Every structure is written in structure tokens, then in C-alpha cells.
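Q: What structure does this chain adopt?
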Amino acid sequence: MTMKTMAKTLALLLVTVLTMACGNGGNGGGTGETGNAGSKADSTVSVIKAVKARKPGRKAKKKSVLTPGATGSPYEILVVANPEDFQTGAYDSLFAVLTDEIPGLPQAEPQFRVSKVSTSNYSKTLKYCRNIIELKINPERYTKCRIKYSQDVYSVPQFIMTIQAPDARSFCDFVADSHDVIIDFFNRAELQREATKLMGDCNPNIRKMVMKKFGCEVSVPCELGKIKNGKDFLWAATDKGENDMNFVIYSYPYTDPETFTEEYCLKMRDSVMKANIPGPLDGMYMQTSRPFVKVYDSSVHGEYAQFARGLWDISNYDMGGPFVSISRVDEKNGRVVVVEGFVFAPNGIKRKLIRRMEASLYTLFLPDELDLRNNQFEIEEITIKPE
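A:
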């Protein structure tokens, strides 16, 4: 049994579903219901643990070329509600979720920038916003809480989430319980947009170097112009001195049965960074800030992937910032390929930079996935199964 076969078999055995809504689940375009799939589980069968099987999605509605482009900046959300919903605590509960802190950053930064409008002022122009959440609270129409979504209704690309509830109290409880679903849904939407953009406008030199060195394809921002090569290692950086974005790709043989444990992941990262990314003085090097790192299982292009996000620093030196990495199995070549983005912005907002680098990591195509890049590129959406 191959590594990939084992991974897909385990996907069927290990996947659990977070049950948070009623009705039919959806994935992709059109109208559906949002949610979340996936779990972290141990297995004695294989060290390759797949936590999410890719499910076919609905096709997005075909839009006219006259459909306007979506307005607003990335990670901005417009909340539409009746005037009373701004007084009952319903809007406040949703605002608290949307502005929760982004994990893995050295200082508090909110997940989204939120604006609000009452239904009476919800004009045609505002309906073009890229991310919209509509509150629907009505005891005569709804008996249960539910999350629904629609795609590209008034503009492209656009997601509109509707949260239904019979009353304000049940709405507040439901939104609190659905925290991860709401956050992940719009994060994935923005990652999708940025990754698709990068695939059409990236640094061509880095793409060629990665293809030649690793046999893989990846799209990173054009600004990353400074490049350093090492053994099975490549580092590209903006090297501005501040607000720096960095991309790293490296590989190592798949030989250890503990490859996809947290300890092995961070051990390999520290080993590679120590050898390739020095500090400002001799004897200094990049390392992982272990207390501030989360390692978890997910998927990319429908296949198992191990994520790590948190903080890095330079040994014996006051310098650091956030990073995110994705480790994937290249079955064709019997190795693990790791892509990472990290940021150095001591005096600036890091949210935008690290999210842009994270989007680039999703554009990695392994040697046996190169045919996928010619199809429509998609990051797996968050979905929920009904009760």
C-alpha cells in the first residue's frame, strides 16, 4: 500500500464532522451552508494522517461579463442587520467573533475589519462588498439557528453569509458556538482570492528556481527578490529592513515513522533554519519560539498536510516575528516538502503580510500534482454536515 493510498484510507476512518447547523451541507459556489470538517487523530496504521477528504462542490452560478467587481479590501466584512439587532446584543456578539485575535502573532491584531449598516440603508452600492454577513432574526420565520451562504450574488468575487435565528439570545449563543466556522469560512475565501491572484502575478524567477531544484511549482509575491540557495533549501526575501516578507522551501527524506508529530516537525524546522538562516552576528540563527507554536493536521489540494503557525526568533538577539508552514508528502520522490512564510515587521501591522505569505503556500504543487494547476485553483472550503 502506497503512502497516498494509506492517507486516503485513513481519511475515511478518521474524519469527524462538527455538527453546528441544520439543512443540507454545501461546498463551492451557488447557495449552501457553511461549516467545518476535519479532526486530529492518531493512527497505528500509518504516520500519514488525512483529516479531510475533498468533496465535490456545487458549481458557481455563471455570471455575465457585466457583473461588477467586488468592492472593499481583503479581510473586510460588512454586517447588515435590522436596527433593533444593534441594541439587543446580537450584533455585538458577532462583532466579538469577527474581531477576535489572530493566532500566532506577537501582538493582538483582529481577524477582520468590520463595518455595519442597517437594512434600510443597505444600498445597491453596499451590496457590491466582497464579504457580507446578514443577520436574520425573526421568531415567526425561524425556529432554529442556521448558517447559509451564497456566492457572487451582486459582484465577483463575493461571499454573503446569512445567519438565521428565532431570537437574539439564541443568535448570540449560536454565533459563539460557531466562532471557528465563521472565521474559517471568510479566511478561506480571502486565501482563495489571494492565492488565485498570485498564480497569475508572481515572481517568475523563483517559480523557475523551485521547479529546477525541487520539481515543484509555487507562486510567491513579486517583491521577494533576494534569493539564497542551500542543500535542498531555498530562501526568498524582500529584504527591506522592515515589513519584510520571506518564503522558504526545503525538503528531507521521508524515513522516520514519527515524521508527522509536533516534536519532529519543529525539530526539523530548527535544524534547517539554524543551518541556513543566520542572525546578525556570528553564532546567531533563527529558531522556533516553542511556547508560541501550534501544529495541527489539515489538507491541501485534497491531500494530507501538516500546518505549523506561531513565532520565530533569533537566538540571543531581540528579533522575531510570526511564521506559518505547511509540510506535505511527495510520494513520487519519497520525501517531505515544506513551504514556509515568515514576516519581520517590528514596527508595523503583521496581519496583512503573513496572510499574503500564507496564501502563497497553498499554490505549491508537488511533482504528481502539476496537472492540477491547469484546472480551476481552489482551496478546500469549510463545510458542515447536518444533524
